[in-house]
Amino acid sequence: xxxxxxxxxxxEDILYLGRVLFFIAFxxxxxxxxxPWPAREDVQSLNSAGRTGLxxxxxxxxxxxxxxxxxxxxxxWRNWQEAMFEKE
Length: 88
What we know:
Helix content is 67%, strand content 0%. It has a domain of 56 residues. The chain contains three helices and no strands. 0% of the residues are buried. It starts with 10 loop residues before the first helix and ends with a helix. By secondary structure, the chain is an all-alpha fold.
């Protein structure tokens, strides 16, 4: 009885190799997509605040929006309290 060192490829071998290559492809794609993108220089120069936060005009607009929201909420609660606890 002689043993062959080489045997013809079976369909199971090809399917196994395909599954392994598919797994490796998804693994490498997941790694590549999870890495952060490097910041471009021209985009950083447009943002005057850099990496520290908001631009000055955005900060002023945000503060103004918060003040207006707080005033609207106060008015809403004042109207609600007057409606709920009005004296008869």
